[in-house]
Amino acid sequence: MESFTPEELAAIERTSEALRQYPHLRRAFIRALQMEELFAIPEQLESLKQVVLELAAQYKQQQEQLNRIEQTAERALQVAERSQQTAERANEIAERALQVAERSQQTAERALQVAERSQQTAERANEIAERALQVAERSQQTSERAQQTSEHAQQTAEHALQVALETRDIVNDMQKRLTRVETDVADLKGMSMELMARKLLPGVLGKLVRKLRVYEPDEFYRVMEEADLLSADDLAEVASADAFAHGQLRSNDTPRWFVVEASWGLGIKDVERAARRAAILTQNGAPAIGTVLGRRITADARKRAQQLGVLVVLNGAPRNPEAAT
């Protein structure tokens, strides 16, 4: 550190006192010392101040952005958690629906057995009633001829005839009820087969298709509506099918939709519906294969499926896999 003599220190003190007493001399003193660069310090400080303020504003904006990002991340995490919960509930509902479908199928099979036995019983009762009616009619004829001799026999014959007529009416009523039971059983079997179709599709089509996904009708409707490929009428027609699936064919790796009609017993109408709905998709830029799934199929329906290129699945196994091309 540089040292000063007492005289020098006294001179410095006098100069400082003069500058404090006469501020207007400060600029002249600075120029005398050739230190004009000190004049630029206030402007530099002001520039530095502006830079600091801009940096502070940028920091504040960045902090606000970080806060918004953090809030968005938290909301996304909450949405993801709710989506996970929704998926778990949907899975539980699907499992319960599958259990209900299996129980409904078992109930329908037992109801069908009961209906078949009841039909046989009704047929035997009808035969007995017809024979009783014939006997009653013959008895009436006999009683009319013997009316003068045996009025009591005529009354007995008329009573027997009445009983036979009532028995026939009862049997006819039973047959009508059995017909309604058979219709209800058929409806139950159809509903159970529609539910079973969505369970069976992965195992059935997995041998033919990669990256398979099964769609519920309402889910398929939303997908097609977002894609905006079909008119409202065409979309309503196609979405009326029982189930849908999508994947890539293992044979040539091309994407295909599968439009599925499910029924316990498959007929020509089931085959033609599947072919028609698949054709609508194909014509509108979504190549599709009509598919029918059930327990049995009529010979005419099997022949029609071969003509229209419809995939036939019986008892969980494809019977004409060449249709999946």
Tag the structure with descriptive keywords.
single chain; alpha/beta; Trna Endonuclease, Chain: A, domain 1; six-stranded mixed β-sheet; two-stranded parallel ribbon; 8 helices
Describe this structure in words.
The chain has 325 residues and is of the alpha/beta class. Among the domains are: 87 residues; 118 residues, Trna Endonuclease, Chain: A, domain 1. The chain has eight helices and eight strands. A hairpin with a 2-residue loop joins strand 7 and strand 8. The longest helix is centred in the N-terminal third of the chain and has 105 residues.
Q: Output the strand order for the largest sheet.
A: 1-2-3-5-7-8
The count of strands amounts to: 8
Mean pLDDT: 79
Broad structural category: alpha/beta
The ordered string of helix (H) and strand (E) elements is HHHHEHHEEEHEEHEE
Describe the global form.
Answer: rod-shaped
Summarize the main sheet: 6 strands, mixed
- CATH-derived topology of the domain at 206-323: Trna Endonuclease, Chain: A, domain 1
Strand content: 5-15%
CATH class of the domain at 206-323: Alpha Beta
